[in-house]
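FORM 7B: Structural annotation worksheet

SECTION A. Query
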Amino acid sequence: MGTLHATMNISLDACCDHMQVLADDEFHEHMADLFGRAAALLFGGNTYALLHGYWPRVAASGAGTPAEVRLARILNEKPKYVVSSHEPAPGWSARRMDGNADNIRALKGETDGPLLLVASPTLARAVVQWNLVDEYHVAISPIVAGHGPTFLAGLQGDVTATLLGVNRLASGVVIHHYDFRGEGATTIPKAG
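SECTION B. Predicted structure
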């Protein structure tokens, strides 16, 4: 049975805006390592469209730093599942799926290795609410954005997680790695 890992990039005030991230080569190397360990990737529709609009071109052209190109090529090779009411843009090995707890639980169970949820704030809140997340990687940039959307906004109930590790990057980005599986780690009732 697979596991569901998630990653989110946030500012100090928990903003999930992709423009509020310090993404240098060290950050891209970290993300490439994380994505490289995943068996498949899970996206919300907006996040998929955002990444699809940039990374396939980097992978095809090789235009970018070696760390960016490595990340782009890892993204290209992974199977992708997109929770959306619309079909994802073609050409990036993506399949659309309905985003309910049963479908995501089934996909998690069928995935031979970690299924990695990439950003997608609304979907992230749902999978945490449904107690489907095993591990979370939260990259905090030393930026105060002053606007939203915010990380796990609207979550119903409390979540307690166990800190597995911290990775401090030279840019000031701090990546926290949490275990959501431990006994009593999630204290919210299952929904959905």
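SECTION C. Observations
The two ends are 21 Å apart (CA to CA). DSSP finds six helices and eight strands in the chain.

SECTION D. Sign-off
Analyst initials: ____
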